[in-house]
Specification:
The structure holds 2 protein chains of 2 kinds. Chain A is mostly helical. Chain A has one domain. In chain A, 71% of the residues lie in helices and 8% in strands. Chain A is globular and about 60 Å long. The two termini of chain A are 33 Å apart. Chain B is of the alpha+beta class. Chain B has 8 helices and 12 strands. In chain B, helix 7 crosses helix 8. Classes of the chains: A mainly alpha, B alpha+beta. Strand 5 of chain A pairs antiparallel with strand 5 of chain B.
Amino acid sequence: MQLYLPIAEVSVNAFLLLGMGGIVGFMSGLFGVGGGFLITPLLFFLGVPPAVAVATGANQVVASSVSGVLAQVRRKAVDFRMGGVLLAGGLAGSGFGIWVFRLLTAAGQVDLFVQLAYVLFLGIVGAIMLQEGLRSWWRSAEGTPVRRAHTHNWIHGLPFKMKFRASGLYISVLPPLAVGAFVGFLAAVMGVGGGFIMVPAMIYLLGMPTKVVIGTSLFQIIFVAAFTTLLHAVTSQTVDMLLALVLILGGVVGAQFGAQVGLRLRADQLRILLALLVLLVAGRIALDLLLTPAEPYSLTSTRLP
Amino acid sequence: MIRAPVLVLALLLAPAPAAPAAAQVPERIVAGLSQTQVAITTNFAGSEILVYGAVRRDAPPPGGGALQVIVTVAGPPVETVVRRRDRVAGIWVNNAAVTIDRAPSFYAIATTRPLDRILRATDDLRHRISIPRTIRAVGIAAEAEGSPDFLEALIRLQTRRGNYVVDEGSVTLTDETLFRADVALPANLVEGTYAVRIFLLRGGRVIDAVERPIAVRKTGLERIFTQMARNDPLAYGVLSLVLAVAAGWGASAAFRLVRP
């Protein structure tokens, strides 16, 4: 069944869209990432204009994150206080990011910067997570007790300490604020929710338990993605509600299944799978940059008044 | 439609020297379209328009080559930036760009015979019939080296996407009088006014041309979404978010019922 999208002005197969929303929603529920880094390239592939894909992708991320976070709340796996601190840093960082984005757009190299940022951050994050995940998996397979990465370092000497009960942490608010701001900055520049950076940062930099990380990350992403959607709707009118609705329909169902599957997997297995997914996306973009393109030309059309 | 009988009447009443305009054009097009409106609905999957008509003449067909017909359909014009990726320091990046001021978002040509055999270059230039002639690219030579390549790339990419269609020999002409052409409009149609042009040719020269508009409009749900996104973007954005949150909550609640 073909579906004509009113804002994107393209006709696409409705079932293909449903399936795509479902797969991205599944990832979202399983790993606690918004799925922005997956949905946007997939929509490009269908012929949806990039501006519409980015804005509508953000709207879909809101829905799947809400669905995912509610599943986590029921399991008391959301640290609302930590989420709030991260969000405060995130909004400040994204404000700065939008400013840098404008500078890069004026310089005409925003595409390149975004692609390099994807390869660099996805590559690093994926590699670290995969290495760490595999190590803890082997260790648990050998039967030696898993040591928590909960060592005292300079982070615990910082002032403004706060108790994060759900995470079992008593640390300064400065590191979460800084992590939030950094992720918010990257999210604004790269046009994604930032879950794939947020999740490992919470695990390795803040030392939060993996089970709490997913819900807290999703909680934070809801607000970042909502902010992005609203900004795009007002400034460029590129949110396609019909496209979003079909993606959401698939996405919310997928997110529930993802959360169910996530319950059956161990934390280290989850991390290895997310690492592989992140590396896959990074590798795909790296190939785009390195391989000789079949078609070196591309078109961007704008309506004449 | 009303004017045609009046013209016939005028020709019958007036002697030949008194009607110089008609004398210069011994053959005229009387054309019709199967539809003057295309409605884009939610399940719109393309449309076909039938362009038909007849050649009206007051004298026997003159010599100077067989009669030929060209039908073109042009979508609303767009400004297009064509970018080329080049290898810089080992990676492929968008390097050079050229802005094409005005090109049709959709363009279809249907003819009775191969275009280059029935149309002279001078007439193509005057009437802007072939694809390269419909595109206006002023001053692109200053924007990047090898600018003709960018123009070629635009045509190549649009043809591959099915936005530019050349269908030579698809117009049927019976007894040098009746003609018909079926032009398929793709599913990825942009809203706006489409111009259908019909050209009558003899010996490579255009001897008559008519133009008819087709209004392509979104209707129903499509129209509501587009209007709201444009006229009240804040409310539209908020509504998008409300729908997203409601859908997320709804799915979560539904799943709790299924698996307590």
